[in-house]
Amino acid sequence: MTQSIAIIGAQLVDETGVREADVLIADGRIAKVGSDLTGDITLVADGCVVAPGFVDLHAHLREPGHEEAETIETGARGAALGGYTAVIAMPNTSPTIDSAAVVRQVLELAALANLCDVYPSAAITVGRAGQQLAPMAELVRLGVRIFTDDGAGVQDERIMRSALEYAGGLTHLANGFPIVLAQHCEIESLSRGALMHEGDWSSRLGIPGQPAEAEELMIMRDIALARLTGSRVHFQHVSTAGGVAMVRAAKEAGLAVTAEATTHHFTLDHSACAGFDPVFKVHPPLRTAADVRAIKDGLADGTIDVIATDHAPHASHAKDDTFADAPPGMLGLETAFALANTELDLPIEEIVALMSWRPARIAGIGDRHGRPIVAGEIANLVVVDPDGIWTVSGSAMASRRTNTPYEGRELRGIVRHTIYNGDLVVQEGSATR
User: Fold this and answer.
1) Does the annotation mark 305 as catalytic?
2) Record: fold of 53-363
3) pTM
4) pLDDT in tens, 5-18
5) Which of the ends of the chain has fewer CB neighbours closer than 10 A, N or C?
6) From CA 392, how far away is CA 419, in angstroms rounded?
7) Span 56-83, mean pLDDT?
8) Which residues of 120-135 are buried (b: 16+ CB within 10 A; e: fewer)?
């Protein structure tokens, strides 16, 4: 029997609204919501918010194959410290997550870590090579609900159409849940050789740039394919104003599309690359200030459904290479809430929606995550202090690597506690396991 936990003095935020109440957790579930509650452990949360745990649709946990950068255990610990109770692991591992054996391996490693739920996504095509569809039906039977070749968009229109049609016929294997194809939107013939956004700063720095159209043409294509097939498409890390506008129009037309934005795409622009520091190299690249404003507007008006991290640790020897040779990617799990809370002019309940129940639904895990804070629900919760101030330090993070672009930056919003399946896995900002 685990110890019961009482959270007292906090404001509760969930999909039903905002209210003041205490929460009692026992035997893995919320036992009672009320007043004057006591437990074996009492967390005094004056000035804090209790919310359903965060869900990240887009995290690179690197295992199997790239354990020098991250493991499922270290990634899951970082996720818990960031307030996440579930993450979707991307399939660009070695070997690729495109078979039942690798899906089972990821699930087993996640169970051993026991810090948050880690759900593997799987590749749309075998080896993410864009040539042959992965055995999607077999992987859906194992619980996979999101397929993506993330790191590379599916370039061939016929292959993508076939994937959408295949996915559309698999809902009966997923208890009626529509399988989601998540697209990394990048036309490689336009982006090949590019190291940053094509614009004023790439010209000044003499760095090959990727035009916004490399992203926007694929978004346009896949909106058309979603219309043709009736299947669901989720657009990953939308980074351009044109992309936001197209997603908005597709939603207004009633198409089954959703979209995510990363924290770095609404907090940084391409001027950050001026010092040639590879920590600011990412795909899709940091865009213009106008694109940043468009991403913020898209988050505010519901065009963009969720905030994702695109958490991407890299081995130090690789990320310390030249700007041209270093791999793209940034850490994201432990800073996401604070960045959203600091940078977005949104109420706390809207930030939680973007990070909790909306991504949970897209991922098909809304039965366990993002749930209302009421008696009987599984206790996957986060306690945050929206007014707490802290300073980012890559070396202090749980990740095996330190490649955060926010080093030394002061942020507002602290994750105090994370409760996963009723267990206190983060207490006062420190992991308990």
Assistant:
1) no
2) TIM Barrel (3.20.20)
3) 0.97
4) 999 999 999 999 99
5) N
6) 23
7) 97
8) bbbbbbeebebeebbe
